[in-house]
Amino acid sequence: MQVESPHLPAMATAGSVLVTGVTGLVGRHVATELLARGHAVRGAVRRPVLPAERVTGLEYVDVGNLGPATSWHEALRGVDYVVHAAAHVHVMRPTPEDHAAYVRVNVDAALALAEQAAQAGVRRLVFLSSIKVNGESTPRQPFAADDAPHPLDAFGRCKHDAEAGLQDVASRRGLGMVIVRPPLVYGPGVRGNFDRLIRLIARGAPLPFATIRNRRSLVSVWNLADLVACALVHPSAADRVWLVSDEEDVSTPELIRRIASAMQLPARLWPVPPAVLRAAATALGRRDEVLRLIGSLYVDTSLTRQGLGWRPVISLDEGLRRTVAGASEMRFGRAV
Questions:
Q1: Is 211 strand, coil or helix?
Q2: Beta strands in 16-89, from DSSP E residues, in sequence order
Q3: Which label site among 14, 23, 50, 155 has the fewest CB atoms less than 10 Å from its CB?
Q4: 75 within 8 A of 62, measured Cβ to Cβ
């Protein structure tokens, strides 16, 4: 279901947009949102897209594998704006190949795109970064857009390096640059811990998080796409970093209860002390995964509300309902 956004009239500011990573969770929803607002949208892909995977109204252009030598010229022809959502995604236990791809895809390809976009006369580039640029946890206060970056892992560092390089290109070439740092993004097809939670809840598995008192920010792909579409054309968005979330921070047990409610299932939570969870996770080699489930990471979006006049277009509960319905359709060909 398409939600009509209250943020900026679509047709008055419509232009031609290139969206990279358009076959991914975020890129696909961004492209769909922009099409709904009257933009002409071109999607950059690395391989041919099957007819069943295509978004109606979206033009596709093959740019091949991403790296410093990627030619974006055909994809950028006649384009007013760019949304760069393509990335080598974060993995929990990165291999040497992942580390190399972080640099090649997430940094070098992004800088090549920005240089060529400036040469092509693109007005503005929106870069999908990550809250991991700010750090890994917020034990005392939320991350804010103007905090000093403090990335702690390879993925966060590569996103920070890309941000710095893009800001340099923007200042040298007069390209409008918008940086968006989302926390955990969820939606149909989400992977990682979020997908594992959905599967465990669906199986009725008992989850040992009843005593956890953390705080996590999340953003549905629908809210993120709406924020990107807003920032693409908003006169105050350029040359700034923006944080985004559903603005309903929850603890892990509360998230589990809400996912279970969306699935019309009971939440089977049982109490295990956090110290025991940490020790067990370390012994099993899954420490980082469990720390993300029991630790806090939340963001302050007040600058986004004030500077862009933006608020989420759907609630956390609605985002979870759509996510689990989409997951069911993908796995079983039916809705929950």
A1: coil
A2: 16-20, 40-45, 59-62, 81-84
A3: 50
A4: no
What are the tokens at 165? Answer: 């390089």
Residue 194 to residue 293: CA distance in whole angstroms = 10
Nearest to 117 by CA among 158, 78, 155, 76: 76
Nearest to 68 by CA among 100, 21, 26: 100
- C-alpha closest to that of 90 among 24, 31, 179, 18: 24
Cα 175 to chain centroid distance, Å, stands at 23
- What is the three-class DSSP state of 299? strand
- Interval 193-242: pLDDT, tens: 899 999 999 999 999 999 999 999 999 999 999 999 999 999 999 999 99
- Give the C-alpha separation, 194 to 227, whole Å: 22
d(CA 23, CA 53): 8
* AA letter at 162: A
Structure-block tokens of residue 207: 């989850």
Residue 279: phi and psi, rounded to 5, are -65, -45
Nearest to 294 by CA among 220, 210, 218, 219: 210
Residue 124 belongs to what H/E stretch? strand 124-128
DSSP 215-258: -B-EEEHHHHHHHHHHHHH-TT-TTEEEE---S--B-HHHHHHH
Instruction: Report whether pLDDT(84) > 50.
Output: yes
3-state secondary structure of 184: strand
For residues 56-83, average pLDDT: 95
What residues have CB less than 8 Å from 124, skipping those under 6 apart?
80, 81, 82, 175, 176, 177, 178, 232, 233, 237, 238
Q: Is the dihedral of CA 94, 95, 96, 100 positive or negative?
A: negative
Alpha-carbon distance of 17 to 35, in angstroms, equals 9
Under a CB-based contact definition with an 8 Å cutoff, are residues 84 and 53 in contact?
no
What are the DSSP calls for 84-134, one per residue?
E-------SS--HHHHHHIIIIIIIHHHHHHHHHHHTT--EEEEE--GGGT
In whole numbers, what is the pLDDT of the chain averaged over residues? 90
List, in order of start, the domains of the chain with CATH numbers.
Answer: 14-187+217-247+298-314 (3.40.50.720)
